[in-house]
Specification:
Blueprint: H1 3-12, E1 20-25, E2 30-33, H2 35-41, H3 62-74, E3 79-81, E4 87-90, E5 96-108, E6 111-120, H4 122-146, H5 152-201, H6 203-218, H7 225-256, E7 265-268, H8 269-280, E8 289-296, E9 299-302, H9 304-320, E10 327-334, E11 338-344, H10 352-355, H11 377-387, E12 391-397, E13 401-409
Parallel strand pairs: 8-10
Antiparallel strand pairs: 1-2, 1-6, 3-5, 4-5, 5-6, 7-9, 10-11, 11-13, 12-13
Length: 413
């Protein structure tokens, strides 16, 4: 795999994933292994590069694993591995641990790669064992109660107390198991959305860069300079798209690590909005217009950098999801109680079904799959608004447009 693509994947997903991720080629040789997987198996970074994936498989099943791996390569599809079976993996120190594995094929340059997502389920197994142990304890308590009629009056209080504690512990274990299963389901949904997004958003600009680079090498005469410049601009645009994607990933990483905080200060919101609109007009489509309406005091007490990122994101979405000749409005109303900003477009709109998922990571509306984007923008915006103690309200109708209203308490007395 290309170093450029490897760096993107490591920065965007591998270095921050809590589950192990391993990518192998169709020969079963390890190409990438994220930090979580290295830690899980006890290896140093890149120690297993180009080693067979079978090194992580218990010795007693290596023959079967090699057969199943070759069968999967012939007919690759996304699926859980070892459905209904207890799977174990082999650490570097020779110890085994229970594991869940799901596989997904990816294709690059006519080559097959397999991406494996791995979860160490040792904790869950312990919880299940604890549940079984408590069930056996309850059975033993019930048997003891049946055989202790002579001391029943004296022992009933003590036994009831023990029974109650056991039931509470059992319910606690069941609750923990339920939460663990729900988290795994959420991770699987998130993983599927990421794979769908990454396969499109990374492949498209990289393909454009590659094809343009090949064509540029063919243009060697002065008469072909115009064609060469056209492809240079395509490469620059594709690189900017990739930079935007990586910026979104970096913002998500910093948000989840709690590294982004509001740096509140006094600034002129009217000036900032006009500067942002001026910059964004360079990206508008033919006939599109950004209209600003400002009412109230100019000075506000907020984080100017976060506000700038919020408005850039919302205006960028409005431009992308609106057709040529449509107006986009950016309104602001500042009074003594609150600061309100509204971005409204006349674009493709959002269905009611998609609205309830729109602020989830990597989620994209069903009518937006052909439009560039990571599905992270509104998730990031929502977090930035929360950091500044604000409130976001979104309304939309298909083919009529979207209205996003953001309000903050006015802290200037």
């Amino acid at each position: 795999m290309q170093n450029f693509e490897k760096v993107e994947l490591l920065d965007a997903l591998f270095n921050h994933a809590t589950e192990g991720i391993i990518i192998s080629n169709e020969s079963g040789l390890i190409q990438l292994m994220n930090p979580a997987a290295c830690k899980m198996f006890g290896y140093e970074s890149n120690e297993l590069l180009n080693e067979s994936i079978d090194v992580l498989v218990p010795k007693n099943i290596k023959g079967h694993h090699e057969h199943h791996r070759k069968s999967y390569i012939d007919k690759p599809h996304a699926r859980p591995m070892g459905l209904g079976l207890d799977l174990h993996a082999l650490r570097k120190d020779g110890t085994l641990f229970p594991i869940e594995i799901s596989l997904s094929p990816i294709f690059k340059d006519d080559r097959k790669y397999i991406i494996a997502f791995l979860i160490d389920i040792s904790v869950r197994k312990k919880i299940e064992a604890s549940v079984r142990e408590k069930q056996l304890e309850l059975e033993q308590i019930a048997l003891t109660l049946q055989k202790s009629n002579e001391d029943l009056e004296r022992k009933v209080s003590d036994r009831t107390s023990v029974l109650q504690e056991a039931i509470l512990e059992l319910e606690k274990s069941r609750s923990e198991l339920s939460m663990a299963l729900e988290k795994e389901k959420d991770l699987n949904d998130l993983k599927s959305r990421f794979i769908s997004m990454a396969s499109h958003e990374f492949r498209t600009p990289l393909t454009t860069i590659l094809s343009s680079a090949v064509l540029i090498s063919e243009y060697k005469t002065p008469e072909q300079e115009e064609k060469k410049q056209k492809h240079i601009k395509r490469i620059q645009s594709s690189v900017n798209n990739l930079n935007d994607i990586l910026s979104d990933f970096l913002s998500i990483s910093k948000l989840e690590e709690g590294k982004i905080h509001a740096d509140m200060s006094m600034f002129d919101l009217n000036i900032l909005m006009n500067e942002i609109a001026s910059d964004m007009r360079q990206n508008t489509k033919a006939g599109q217009e950004i209209v600003i309406n400002y009412h109230g005091d100019n000075l506000v007490f907020l984080d100017a950098k976060l506000i700038k990122n919020i408005l850039f994101n919302l205006l960028s979405n409005a431009i992308k999801f609106s057709s040529e000749g449509k107006s986009i409005t950016l309104d602001a109303d500042v009074n003594s109680n609150e600061i309100k900003m509204v971005v409204q477009d006349q674009g493709i709109g959002i269905s009611e079904e998609d609205l309830k998922h729109l602020f989830e990571r990597f989620y994209r509306g069903k009518n937006a799959f052909n439009i560039q984007g990571t599905g992270l923008g509104l998730h990031i915006v929502g977090n930035y608004v929360d950091i500044m103690k604000g409130h976001l309200h979104l309304t939309s109708k298909l083919n009529e447009g979207t209205r996003i209203e953001i309000t903050f308490p006015n802290q200037i007395n």
